[in-house]
Design a protein that fits this description.
mainly beta; 41% strand; globular; 5 strands; Immunoglobulin-like; five-stranded mixed beta sheet
Length: 91
Amino acid sequence: MSPTFKPEVTEYTGETSNESDTITATPYKKGAAVKITVGETPVENGGSAAWEEGENSVKVAVSYGTTTQEYTVTVTKSAAAAASESDDDDV
């Protein structure tokens, strides 16, 4: 993920392949609640995401007390990773 996480920065980018589909968000403050959405699909923290080829929008909402902060991560799955996935289907 880029840049390195800072609570005041709300926009990030990342890359993925077929080998990485787990999303985990660790709150900065103990006791904070985390809600993750990939596109329009809710994902359990530590759960698997279905990445589409190209850019995928991930929203992470962190709530602590009465405050909620939303972060956006644009995760890009490369065409090469998607092609490899397609090749696996032919076996």
